[in-house]
Amino acid sequence: MSERNEKFFTVDPKLVKSLRELVVEKIREGIVSGYFEEGEHLKERELSSMMGISTTPIKEAFRILENEGMLVTVPRKGTFVSEYASTSIEEILLLRASVESLCARLAAVKMNDEELQELEKLVLIMEGLHKKGDSEALLEQNSRFHQLIIDSTRNVMMQNILGNLRNIDKAFRKRALKVEVEREKGFHEHRAVFEAIKQRNPEQAEQLMKDHILRTKDNILAAEARLEGDRQS
Amino acid sequence: MSERNEKFFTVDPKLVKSLRELVVEKIREGIVSGYFEEGEHLKERELSSMMGISTTPIKEAFRILENEGMLVTVPRKGTFVSEYASTSIEEILLLRASVESLCARLAAVKMNDEELQELEKLVLIMEGLHKKGDSEALLEQNSRFHQLIIDSTRNVMMQNILGNLRNIDKAFRKRALKVEVEREKGFHEHRAVFEAIKQRNPEQAEQLMKDHILRTKDNILAAEARLEGDRQS
DNA sequence: AACTATACTCTGATATATCAGATATCATAT
DNA sequence: ATATGATATCTGATATATCAGAGTATAGTT
User: Cα–Cα distance between B112 and B153 in angstroms, integer?
Assistant: First the structure.
C-alpha cells in the first residue's frame, strides 16, 4: 500500500453536486443564454414546480447567484434577474486582468518551492503540446496554469472572485465563440510569467500577466466583432 | 406635491433586514473577531437554537458567506470556517486598490453628466468639511465618493466585489483601529481623481485611484505596526 | 483481545407547512 | 365617478418535518 500513489484512489466529496449546485448552474445558464430576460421575476414556487424539486435548494441557489451579481433580491418583493447581468465580456476580462495580475504579483512572493516545481513541470508539458500543436490539450493545461497561480496566493477571496468570473466566462462562451485556439499563441507569455515568478519578481509577474490577459481580451473582442461583421454581410 | 422632493418620503425596501442578513453579519463578525476559529464546524441546528430561529435563514446565510469566501461547505460533511478566512488586511486593500482603480477607469468613460455633477457637489462638500476639520463627517462623505464612482460603472460584479470587501474591511476595523482620521489627508487625492474623471482621462483616473488606496494602505499598515509596537513595549 | 455487524445518533439535504407583506379585485359609500 | 375599505391571492420569509449519509458506540462472535 505504501508505494502506491494514495491520491489515486480517493474521492473528493466536493465533486458531489447538490441540487442547489445544479440549480445555480441551470439558472446561470438561463440568464446568460437569454432564456430569462433582464429584470425578470424569478419565483421560487414556479421554479420549484418546473424543476420538480422543493423551494429550499432554489432559495439557496438564489443567495449564491445574488452574491455573484446575477440576481437581485428586494426584500418582500422577490428575486429578479439583475438588470446588468449581461456585463460585457470586455469588462469581465478587464476585471480578470486586474485581479489575476495581482495574484501573479502575490504568487511571486508567496509561492513555495513545491508549487513552483509543479508550475515548471506544467510549463514543460505546455511546451510539448505547443510544439505538437495540440491546442485542445494545451487549452486545458492553460487553465491549470492560471489556477495554480491563483491557488498559490492562498487568498480565498481572490480564488472566489476569479472562480465566479470563470463561471460566467464559461457560460458566456457557450453561446459566444471559440477563439480559444488563439491561446496557443499565449504559450510564450505563460512561460514569461512563470519565469518572473521563479525569479521572485512581483512587479514583472504582475505586468506580464496583465498584458497577457489584456491581449487575449483584445483578440476575443476582435474575433467577436468579426463574427458580428459576418452576420451582417 | 410637485415642488417637493419626492425622494424624501419614500422607504427603501432594501433597508429591511431579513433574518438571513442579520445572521450573515453575525457570523462574519464572529469569524473576524475570532469568536469562531478557523476550520471550526458551524452546525445549522446549533446556530439556530443559539440564535432562537429556524435553520432556513442560517442555511441561506451559509451560502452567502460561502460565496464570499468566509465559509467552506463540503457536501455531506458540513460547513466550516474557511482556513484562510483571515486574509490579511494588506491583501484586502491590495485587492481593493486593484478593482477600484479599474472602476475609476471605467467611470471616466461611462459616468453621465448627472452623476458627474453629483460627484462635483460632493467634492465641494468635502472641501468645506476639510477646511472645517470635521473629519467625522468627511469620513462619511469619503465613502459616498467612492461609492458613487463604483456605482457609475453600472457593473454589478464590481459593485458586489467591492461591497464584500467593504463588509469585511468594516468587520475588521471594529477590532482593529481607527486610523480613519488619516483619511482627511486623502482629500486632495479625491479631488484629483474627480478631476481626472471630469477630464474623461481613464488612465489617469485609474492611476490616481490606485495610488490613493495604496497610500492609505501603507498608512493603515504603519499604524497597525505602531500599535503592535506599543503593545510590546 | 480483535474484528465485525448492528443499532443509534448527529447533521446536512430536502420537502412541506405556516406566516406575513404586497398586490389586485371588487364592492360600497359619498 | 372616484375614493376607501374589505377580501382574496400571490409570493417571499420563516418554521418544522423528513430523509439519508457519515460517524460512533456497543454488543456479540471468534
Answer: 10
Comparing C-alpha atoms, which of A17, A13, A12 is closest to residue A57? A17
State how far the Cα of B15 lies from the Cα of B21, in Å rounded to an integer. 11
A residues 136-195 closer than 8 Å to B (CB): 153-161, 164-165, 168
Q: What is the dihedral of CA A14, A16, A22, A24, to 10 degrees?
A: -10
Q: What is the mean pLDDT of each run of 10 residues along chain B (233 residues)?
A: 53 76 89 86 89 90 89 87 78 94 97 96 92 81 93 90 82 53 75 97 98 88 74 63
From residue B157, alpha-carbon distances to A21, A84, B38 in Å are 20, 9, 27
**Residue type for position B104:** A
Measured between beta carbons, which residues in chain B are less than 8 angstroms from residue A64? Answer: 63-64, 66-67
Distances (CA, A) of A59 to A43, B24, B40, B59: 10, 15, 25, 9
Most confident of A45-59, A159-173, B106-120: B106-120
Q: Which homologous superfamily is A89-232 in?
A: GntR ligand-binding domain-like (1.20.120.530)
Q: What is the CATH number of domain B14-81?
A: 1.10.10.10
Task: Give SS3 for B43.
Answer: coil
